[in-house]
Amino acid sequence: MKAVGFKRHLSLEDEESLFDFEMPIPKATGHDLLVKIEAIAVNPIDVSVRLNGSGEYEKPKILGWDACGTVVATGEQVGLFGEDDLVFYAGAFDRSGSNAEYQLVDERLVGHAPQGMDIADIAAMPLTSLTAWEALFEKMRLSIDKPSENKGKTLLVINGAGGVGSVATQLAHLAGLNVIATASRSETIAWTKDHGADQTINHRQPMPSQLYELGYENIDYILGLSDIDGHFKEMAEMIRPNGRIVSITGNKKPLDMGLLKPKSVEFMWEWMYTKSYYQLPEMITQHESLEKIARLLEQKKIKSTANKIIDGINAENLKAAHAMIETNSSIGKIVLCR
Amino acid sequence: MKAVGFKRHLSLEDEESLFDFEMPIPKATGHDLLVKIEAIAVNPIDVSVRLNGSGEYEKPKILGWDACGTVVATGEQVGLFGEDDLVFYAGAFDRSGSNAEYQLVDERLVGHAPQGMDIADIAAMPLTSLTAWEALFEKMRLSIDKPSENKGKTLLVINGAGGVGSVATQLAHLAGLNVIATASRSETIAWTKDHGADQTINHRQPMPSQLYELGYENIDYILGLSDIDGHFKEMAEMIRPNGRIVSITGNKKPLDMGLLKPKSVEFMWEWMYTKSYYQLPEMITQHESLEKIARLLEQKKIKSTANKIIDGINAENLKAAHAMIETNSSIGKIVLCR
């Protein structure tokens, strides 16, 4: 089968930073599905893994943590899916990715694809939806089923126009929250408002004073999706006492956690891969969440965040996608279709 | 009325570090109760506030965040209590404390005292019970009503024999958890086992290897009650992925929060005063929690952690109590009775 990978961590100008190669089709065992990939999406994590590291892999490493495809074979323990099922998933951090013709994925991380949607629109969703879902409904413990419970509560999404932000704003809006998204350009402001944000502020300007001007004394929930080092002090200032902060971006400098102590703030990391990486029993919740997300997409309660679609899953197109993400100003998701 | 206070932050050898003085009895207004103090307990926070700071107060500052006493007057908005009610409470951080003959306290922070118990045993409980309660049942979201939900889950209490630890072990045991407490001396080991700990490990030795020897791969919940700087790295190692850490002790050095990221750990501060300090609507939950704690004490489901009782609320006895806490090896609580 065809696949795209890399052996050394190189910048995109280097021919070998991502390259096409051939390898045998893997075989499904245990809980694994063998999926024929129809479309993939590219995430910041792909760029991060490609860039960060040293040395040389013996076999090419295959990136890709978003896929829509068809089940063509199943392991002997598979119970949730059968052949010909159209599925979507993000997969596991420590396994071979979706930048290939076929991929193995544990069924507990997979959902049945929503019906009546373009393959590209579906492929854009799994990683960001699962991240936003877990952040809002597991870590922050907001209820999606009872919007009345969230009435009058405010969520601030820092970097609202990115992949996760574009789903989080929609899900939070659906859950009845008042959603403030940060965005700094006219096109990202328009995008976030089109994806569920009630108001926007600019994260390149001091945020607390902008909130104050909008009439907010503090914020019940903050979802940090970019540059926690740069935003942490303001997050501590803006958060309500007893409030909850979830961050998906890691810190490079120490965080002054003591700033959160007088307010008894809850600080949670959300890494979508934790459940599969540690093979936790709650892995199955990713199947369950994707099934719910599929229904919301079918019912048009949320919409796909695909914003750029490229034909052909190959090294050349993947390099172009990585280059767009490296500008750090992309809106929504970039999808590649077979 | 008589009171004990200080104007400058001094060590105990100094005569003025705590002194007796006279002041007018304050008047209850709004939601305040005027309480005639019968017994008080001394907490590490008393020592911390006495020692840390500079300059000189114009009027003496009165410490004390644990009291049992009788309501003698009520503000015009009081609805939960009447005169002659025996009450117990920790109170607010930014108001005058219980080291006095009379004290004003917001009714929403107060519970009816448990019946059939010694005043001293009651006075030992409010601050530590509220801290343990909020840490376990609000921050960690454990259920006290459904022990079956917690079956098979393990809580590690770092510093199990201290004031908060001695209540947290009891409440967690009652809630059906498997409780591991840290203790380093034979008397603290015996104390924690007598207060609900199933097993103990020594926090002065590497903790992960001790847990491993006891058969634990990781720990679902960790309650940090001392030296978070010294224990943080081990906490990160011991915690289960998706686990929850609550700390009541602040950090002096930066915490390496990135250690918690791959596991998507939830890290929560618990400061019992947050609700009253910020006058949050959820202040009323401290009244509700103390009412529940009183029932548990009456039903002998938990027991008082009073371990040293001194007769007479005056500067001399308070200095003796502060001195004991300054050794950092006290077990349970020190109580002073009128």
UniProtKB/TrEMBL annotation, chains A, B:
<protein>
    <recommendedName>
        <fullName>Zinc-type alcohol dehydrogenase-like protein</fullName>
    </recommendedName>
</protein>
<dbReference type="GO" id="GO:0016491">
    <property type="term" value="F:oxidoreductase activity"/>
</dbReference>
<dbReference type="InterPro" id="IPR013149">
    <property type="entry name" value="ADH-like_C"/>
</dbReference>
<comment type="similarity">
    <text>Belongs to the zinc-containing alcohol dehydrogenase family. Quinone oxidoreductase subfamily.</text>
</comment>
<keyword id="KW-0479">Metal-binding</keyword>
<keyword id="KW-0862">Zinc</keyword>
<feature type="domain" description="Enoyl reductase (ER)">
    <location>
        <begin position="17"/>
        <end position="336"/>
    </location>
</feature>
<dbReference type="Pfam" id="PF08240">
    <property type="entry name" value="ADH_N"/>
</dbReference>
<dbReference type="InterPro" id="IPR011032">
    <property type="entry name" value="GroES-like_sf"/>
</dbReference>
<dbReference type="InterPro" id="IPR036291">
    <property type="entry name" value="NAD(P)-bd_dom_sf"/>
</dbReference>
<dbReference type="Pfam" id="PF00107">
    <property type="entry name" value="ADH_zinc_N"/>
</dbReference>
<keyword id="KW-0560">Oxidoreductase</keyword>
<dbReference type="GO" id="GO:0008270">
    <property type="term" value="F:zinc ion binding"/>
</dbReference>
<dbReference type="InterPro" id="IPR052585">
    <property type="entry name" value="Lipid_raft_assoc_Zn_ADH"/>
</dbReference>
<dbReference type="InterPro" id="IPR020843">
    <property type="entry name" value="ER"/>
</dbReference>
<dbReference type="InterPro" id="IPR013154">
    <property type="entry name" value="ADH-like_N"/>
</dbReference>
<dbReference type="InterPro" id="IPR014182">
    <property type="entry name" value="ADH_Zn_typ-1"/>
</dbReference>
